[in-house]
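Provenance and format

Records in this collection were gathered into a single text stream. Each protein contributes a sequence line and a C-alpha cell line. The two records reproduced below are adjacent in the stream.
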Amino acid sequence: MEHNIDLSGYAIRTDLALEAHELAQQRQPQGGPIPGVRIETDDSEAGIKVTRLAVESEEAGQQIGKLPGHYITIEVPKLRDNDTAVEERVAQRFAREFARFLRELGITEEKKALVVGLGNWNVTPDALGPMVVENLLVTRHLFTLAPESVEDGYREVSALSPGVLGITGIETSEIIYGVVEKSRPDFVICIDALASRALHRVNTTIQISDTGIHPGSGVGNKRKAIDEKTLGIPVIAIGVPTVVFASTIVNDAITYLLGHFGQSMQESNRPASKLAMSSLPERKEPYTEEDLPDMEARKTFLGLVGSLPEEEKRQLIHEVLRPLGQDLVVTPKEVDDFIEGVANVLATGLNQSLHRAVNGQNSAAYTH
C-alpha cells in the first residue's frame, strides 16, 4: 500500500537568496539554470567566496521565493573562529563590495544615509543591528550644527536602533517611516540577523541586497516590509544568519552521518588505508551529493529516511518536530563573541564605504 504524504505546507524558510536559489535549482530538471536568474561566483581571495545573484523578473522571483533585485553573499567559513586577522580581511572585502554595490545603484558620495539597526538588543543572536549602530561613524549632527568643522571625505550619516514590536508596541516600519519623513535621508541601510537553512552558513555569511527587509521573517513573524515601496527611497539590507531551525540540525546531522560513511568507504578501499592503524577521514563541510554513498548503501545505513531526496527529508523532519513543539530556533553557544566580532566587521566596512576619508589604516579609530 502506498501512502502519499502532502508536504507542501512545510516550506523551508531561509533568508538567504543563495539558499533559496539552491532549493529552486534542485527542483529544476537535471538541476539546470533558472530562467531570469543570473549568478556569478568570485573565489579569487583565499577563504572568501563572493556570490552575486540577480533576479531579473517577477517570474524568476516567484520561482525562488525572493523579490527581483540584486543579492551579494559573502561566505567565510573561518569567520566563526573569532580570528582577528580573518575579521580584518572580511571587513576590507565587505567595504569594497558594499562600495561597489552603492555605485551600481547610482548612490553617490553626497547622498545622505540613514542606518537602521534592527533587532532586540536584549537577545544576543538578534542584537546584531543595534551593535553595528553603536560602532558607526554618525555625522548628521555635525553637518547640521557645525558644518564648518566637517572635512572633505565624509558623508552625512544618521543611525537608529528602533527596537522590536514587543518592546515598543510600534511597528518598526512605522518608526522608520516617521524618521525618514522628518530627517529626509536619500537612502536607508537596514541591518538585521537572519535565519539559515544550512548549519555551515550560520555565523559565516554576510548578505547584501537592494530589495529591502521584512523584520522577523526569519523566525516566522510577519511584519510590515521596509523597502523602497513603503519608504519612497532605496533600501539596502545587510544580514548575517545567526540562528538555524532544529529541523535543519537534524537533517544536516543525517547528511553528515551519510557523508562520513561515504568518506570512510572511499578511504577503506584505498590500498594505503589498509596499512594504517586508524584511517578516520578529515571532516568535510558541507558534504555534497558526490560525497554520499549510493542509494543502496543509504538504505542499508538509515532505511527509508536515508533514501529520501534532500528537500523531502528536511520537510518530513519539520513535520515530525513541529507538532511536538520541538522545532526550536537554535544559535551556537559562542554567539556572544561572534556577534561582537561580526558587528565590528560590518561597522568597519560601512564606515569605509560610506566615508571616503575612512580607510583600512584609520578605521580602527572609529570602532571599539
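Adjacent record:
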Amino acid sequence: MDSAPRDTPDDDRNPLHLLSLDALRRRTSMKWRTYPEDVLPLWVAEMDVPLAAPVARAITDAVALGDTGYPAGTAYAGALADFARTRWGWDGLAVERTAIVPDVMLGIVEMLKLITGPGAPVVVNSPVYPPFYQFVTHMDRRVVEAPLGGDLRIDFAALEEAFRHATVGGGRAAYLLCSPHNPTGTVHSAEELTAVAALADRYGIRVVADEIHAPVVAHDTAFVPCLSVPGAENGLALMSASKAWNLAGLKAAVAVAGPAAADDLARLPEEVSHGPSHVGIIAHTAALRDGRDWLDAVRAGIDDNRRLLAELLADRLPRVRYRPAAGTYLAWLDCRPLDLGDDPAAAFLARGRVALSPGTNFGTGGAGHVRLNLATSPGLLTEAVRRMAAAVD
C-alpha cells in the first residue's frame, strides 16, 4: 500500500483525513524513521495530521521576528487556565501556582524531587506508560505497582495495598497518576478521583498527576482535572498541549500546584524554567487559545476511528479483545487469545509489517497485549488491521 485512500471529500475538516502515506513518510520524526518503509507505524504517540493553522502561523510569525530566545512570562499558563475554565468547567487553575517545565515527564521528575527523597516509593497503576518506570528508577526512586482492575479502572483494594506497602517505615511516598490513563484510555471519574484524594490523605501520600492527554476525550465524556476534586489541595499536576495538538517536538509543559502545594512548587529550581523551548511555548499557547476547533475535528475523527477499529477487529480478528475507551488516541488490545506469546507486537511486526507498542513495556498486566495508535487515517487503520489479520492466518 503506497498511499492512504482518500475516503473523504477535499473540503473535509478532519485533520486525520488530509495526509497521504507518501507525505507522512517524508517526515523525519521517530514514528516514521524507526522502522523500514514497508512497515506501517502505529506505535509511538504521534498523530498523522498537519499542524493546526493557528499553531503554524504562531511559529512562522515567531521565526519571521527572530523571536527564538529564552522563554518568559505566563502566557502559556494563562491560556491553559482559560482552556480549563471553558472546556472542563474548572476555574481553580491559578496562574500564580504554575511553573513552566521542559515537558511532562521531566516535570514529573522535578515534582517527585520536591516531595520525595532518594529511594522513596512511587506508586503507579500498571499497565502504564513505560517512561513512568524508566524516569522514576533513573532518578533513584522505587516503583510500587497497583495494577488496574479487570475493567481497566483503578482497583482501590490494590491501590490501598500499594499505599500500605509504600508507607511502611514512615518514609515519604508519592502516587504517580496517569489521567486519562495510558495505555488503556480510561478517563477517571470525579468520584474515583475524590476517592484517590481521600486514600492518599489517609496514608500521607502525595499525588502527582500526568494529565498530558486531558484535551483528548470522546465528545460524550467529561475530563475531570485531578486538582479539581475535594481533598486534592496538596496535589501536583503536569499538563501540556503536546499530545492533543501533535507538538511533541516543541518542548513545553506546565506544572500546576493545588493550594496546599504552592510552597512545594515555589521551591522548584529556577533553572528548570530554562528547559522549555520558547518557540514551543508560543506554539502551545496558540494551540490552547486558537486551536480548539481543530482539536474538536481531531476528536471527532478519533471517535470515528474507535468505532472503526471495533468493527475491523470484529470482522478480521474477532479473538482480539478491545474495549473502546473514552480518552487518549490509543487503543489497548488484548491479544492473548491469539496465542502469540507475551509479545504479540513482535509477530505483527515480523509477519504483518505493522509496528505496535509491545504490552510488556507497560509493566504488570501488559503481557499478551499491544498498544495501537488510532490517530491516523481510516485507510491506514484499515490496512493495518488487514495486515495484522494476515499475520495470524
